[in-house]
Amino acid sequence: MKFRCERDVLVEALGTATRAVASRGGALPVLSGVKADLTGDRLVLTGSDLDLTIQVAITVAGQQDGVAVLPARLAADIVRALGPGAVHIDAEGDEAQISSGRSEFAVRLLPAEDFPRLPETPGDEVTLDAAAFEEALKQVVRAASHDDARPILTGVLMAAEGDGLRLVATDSYRLAVRDLPGTTVLREGQTVLVPSKALGELTRVLSGAETVRLRLAERDATFEVGETKLTTRLIEGEFPNYRQLIPNTHPNRLTVGREPLLEALRRVKLLAREATPVRISLKADGIELTAITQDVGQAHEDLDAKYEGTEMVIAFNPEYLADGVEAVKGDEVTLETVDALKPAVVKSVESQDYLYLLMPVRVS
Amino acid sequence: MQWSDLVVPRCHPREVRLVIATCSVDYDGRLTAHLPLATRLLMVKADGSISIHADDRAYKPLNWMNPPCKIVEEPDRWVVSTPKGEKLTITIEEIHADLNHELGVDPGLQKDGVEAHLQELLAANCTTLAEGLILVRREYPTDIGPVDLLCRDANGAAVAVEIKRMGDIAGVEQLVRYLERLDLDGRLRPVRGIFAAQTIKPQAKVLAAARGITCVEVDYDTLRGIEKDSLTLF
Predict the structure, then answer these.
(1) What is this structure's pTM?
(2) Which residues of B touch A (CB under 8 A)?
(3) Which of A190, A357, B172, B186 has the highest count of CB atoms within 10 angstroms of its CB?
(4) pLDDT band for position B108 (50/70/90)?
(5) Residue A25 has pLDDT above 60, yes or no
(6) Which CATH number does the domain A247-358 belong to among 3.40.30.10, 3.40.50.970, 3.20.20.140, 3.10.150.10?
(7) What CATH architecture is A125-244?
(8) In this structure, which long-range contacts are made by residues B91-96, counting pairs with CB atoms below 8 Å and at least 24 apart in sequence?
């Protein structure tokens, strides 16, 4: 395999494919590599940890077709470190020469025959608006769990809802629900659970794109954005019945400016260390945010707001609250509560297509 | 003469010696350091180590020498040296107190959440580890030592559980060895493994997955029925 490519193009493609490369090769050492498959002037780079696979196709000046598996992070680091201009890669036997200008590297290749054959996802292709999907993913993925001990919660539920698509994620402390009306992807009643890690990577790829093509199979989902293809295994299992968690009535309702609340939270949480919650004192004439960490200090901030309901003090994990408020669109947000120990609902005043449910923290 | 033979003459080999003295200290070794004249606590432990403390926080000594070290005591000066060529000179102006005491064998640090208690709690709440799990026996014997729990799952298959406070690779390997031994028993074979800990290190998870062992992180407070401040939706 032999080709020439502009450094910046190769850096970007390697960077994208490498994001799916296993951090440790584990049982398959070849998975610490990125597969480069050259046919004519088309180079396809593939990184995979078997759960997530990212393929990027770029146009290069091909000189000799072939397949090689480069050590992913080393190759990406080398190409990134080279000077601007053309990069030459010549892989033969068990070694690849990477050169540009007066720099030349020889790196040992991984055995290409060991690289697993990755199946194509069958199924009908659906095209979605990339910007809307990206926004929805950013609003929802944040609520997914990172705890591998509870794999179901590390996924984002995609479900048919009315005439559109609903995305749901929860880590048991908060729940994010976003509707994409008019987006038909799934059959009525069909649901799939997509790993949030894969969707997090997808949001990077979606940036600036116009459309994303989606194919869903029984065990895999494939998202194609331009020349980038991301395939992920689906998570098997029953997602929690989230509908029953959303309170039907909210006797207490706070309406507050989104940006002022975020800024106040950013300041006050400086004194909310070691899982200390931020307390919000809800009063008719406004709210007061307080954080107290023993042996460190305390922070208070008053904020103008409109509050209808029973005066109370409710406490939240400041990171989780900020995550929800940040995800809401518009200038104003509402926080609806039943009492200080029941889940609160964060929503936009302007739009009803996103809901963030957050469990308070018990304080004495 | 061995270095270990050379301890402070006044200190019995199994006693700790505490001396409160007004002294200055000079260290000469990897660097040079000087402690000006002040009243300090000099502690000579039975293992031959010496440490110099100020009355300031329960932190670490101002200076210390690890064993083996040779301590030569003169009326107004102690000279402590190690085989590496380090030298600590303690110049004593006045001794205010000097006592020896044998502390005996220390039982070690006992932390809340020790494995024994976790084992007890998990034995009483096996379903925390997997649905339908029923306890057969705690400390089930094998010829290389007892496995923490032996259980049967909902299908009647044997499940060996190894419990740690912090789950690392060594714990997984220990369970692998138990599984090998238990698999030799036709009444139990095939035996599945569950590795349970409050926290399991990523490397241990990788190894466990490669060995077909299930990892379960358990919440000690929840097992003890302690209500957490962080409320959950479900």
Answers:
(1) 0.69
(2) 205-206, 210, 215-217, 227-234
(3) B172
(4) low
(5) no
(6) 3.10.150.10
(7) Roll (3.10)
(8) B91/B23, B91/B24, B91/B25, B91/B26, B92/B21, B92/B22, B92/B23, B93/B21, B93/B22, B93/B23, B93/B24, B93/B37, B94/B21, B94/B22, B95/B19, B95/B20, B95/B21, B96/B20, B96/B21, B96/B22, B96/B39
